[in-house]
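Hello,

Our lab assistant flagged a job as stuck in the queue for most of the afternoon. It eventually completed. Since we weren't sure the result was trustworthy after the delay, we are filing this so someone can double-check. Below is the sequence as submitted and the structure that was eventually returned. Let us know if re-running is recommended.
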Amino acid sequence: MSSKVVTTKLSADGLRYGAKAPGSPFVGTGTTRSCFLCGKHRQAAQLRSKRLLGRTEMVCAPNCQSFE
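-- returned structure --
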């Protein structure tokens, strides 16, 4: 896994901020959602709806461990 280069710059008022490369970490068509159980972002086709705590939530299909 490659790490992105982060540079720190000092602004005129003395505050620091990190600059990062432009773009989004979510590649693809933009139809990613997070799994309710593991919190990782998946494509919509990799998720299924499940009734949890009285609500319908999106979870990994068939389970979260299958992607690791």
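-- support follow-up --
The delay was a queue issue, not a problem with the job. The result is valid. The chain has a mean pLDDT of 78. The CA atoms of residues 40 and 68 lie 11 Å apart.
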